[in-house]
């Protein structure tokens, strides 16, 4: 890693969250990026720069606790300068722990959440340095912000 490279941790759970995160790849080209997700099969998309965590949601308390611990350990080991997430639970955990270790944090709420903000996004807003929505009608003065475009 050169002095000008930023260590980025890009986090998303599977499916649409992952697809949206991959659409941001051109923005990461000059930096050292590690991807975090819930499926090792996604290594085909990013190569060796992938770490995985347990897939969990609010209904699976023990799996959720395991996932939070895994995310915390990866954050401590990787020490990212920036954490960016398109959701869901692993992204929130990474935003939370990333902020605690001094990383700049960015949450981009999923395009699928067109009528209201995601649960994870509503939690992440308290820890994200930048909180974005992909729908202009969901933007509010107190956040999230809408910067245009759709992933």
UniProtKB/TrEMBL annotation:
Species whose genome carries this gene: Noviherbaspirillum humi
UniProt name for this protein: Oligosaccharide biosynthesis protein Alg14 like
Pfam family, one: Alg14
InterPro entries: Oligosacch_biosynth_Alg14
SUPFAM superfamilies given in the database record: UDP-Glycosyltransferase/glycogen phosphorylase (SSF53756)
Entry's Gene Ontology BP terms: dolichol-linked oligosaccharide biosynthetic process
Organism lineage string: Bacteria, Pseudomonadati, Pseudomonadota, Betaproteobacteria, Burkholderiales
